[in-house]
């Protein structure tokens, strides 16, 4: 069993599903294997502790263009994981939008751009 299969199995036992956007998966795979495993462990930890917004979970909503998104910011790694917590079909889903360095809020700008692109695509699909 590879690490992603183990990751999915562990999350399923917590009643949480994690979905990576294609861009977020590219973000993840850009890190060396050891760091990828640390990032996945951070996501599992958030799933265990409560990925939804307070008071249902421990997440706090970001502000401005990123309202409705949450972050995971480990103190020991200089990176941020930006995700959207949603409930779908009775399941908690963490939609991972961006993983990147804390470097001058770059990951937040990336997440905002990806969210805007996603919303624009949804509007085009509805027309």
Summary tags:
127 residues, alpha+beta, YaeB-like fold, 4-stranded mixed beta sheet
Would you spell out the secondary-structure blueprint of this structure?
Elements (H helix, E strand, L loop, with lengths): L2 H12 L1 E5 L1 H8 L3 H17 L20 E3 L6 E10 L2 E11 L4 H21 L1
Parallel strand pairs: 1-4
Antiparallel strand pairs: 2-3, 3-4
Question: What would you note in describing this structure?
Answer:
The protein has 127 residues and is an alpha+beta fold. The protein has one domain (3-126): YaeB-like fold, CATH 3.30.2310.20. The protein has 4 helices and 4 strands; from the N terminus they run αβααβββα. The protein has helices at 3-14, 22-29, 33-49, 106-126; strands spanning 16-20, 70-72, 79-88, 91-101. A 4-stranded mixed sheet has the order 1-4-3-2. The mean pLDDT is 87.
Average pLDDT confidence is 87
Distance, first to last CA: 42 Å
Largest sheet: 4 strands, mixed
- The succession of helices and strands, N to C, reads HEHHEEEH
- Secondary structure: helix percent: 40-55%
Overall strand count = 4
Side-by-side strand order of the widest sheet: 1-4-3-2
CATH class call: Alpha Beta
Provide the number of structural domains.
Answer: 1
Low-confidence stretches: none
* Rg, Cα atoms, Å: 14 Å
Number of helical runs? 4
CATH topology: YaeB-like fold
Shape: globular
SSE-based structural type: alpha+beta
The CATH superfamily is: RelE-like
Outline:
The protein is built from four helices and four strands.
């Amino acid at each position: 069993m590879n690490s992603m299969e183990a990751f999915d199995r562990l999350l399923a036992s917590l009643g949480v599903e994690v979905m990576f956007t294609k861009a977020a998966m590219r973000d993840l795979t850009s890190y060396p294997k050891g760091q990828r495993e640390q990032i996945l462990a951070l996501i599992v930890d958030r799933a265990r502790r409560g990925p939804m917004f307070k008071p249902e979970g421990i997440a706090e909503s970001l502000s401005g263009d990123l309202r409705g998104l949450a972050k995971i910011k480990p103190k020991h790694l200089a990176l941020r994981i930006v995700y959207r917590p949603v409930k779908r079909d009775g399941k908690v889903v963490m939609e991972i939008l961006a993983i990147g360095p804390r470097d001058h809020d770059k990951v937040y700008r990336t997440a905002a751009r990806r969210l805007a692109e996603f919303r624009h695509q949804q509007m085009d699909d509805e027309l």
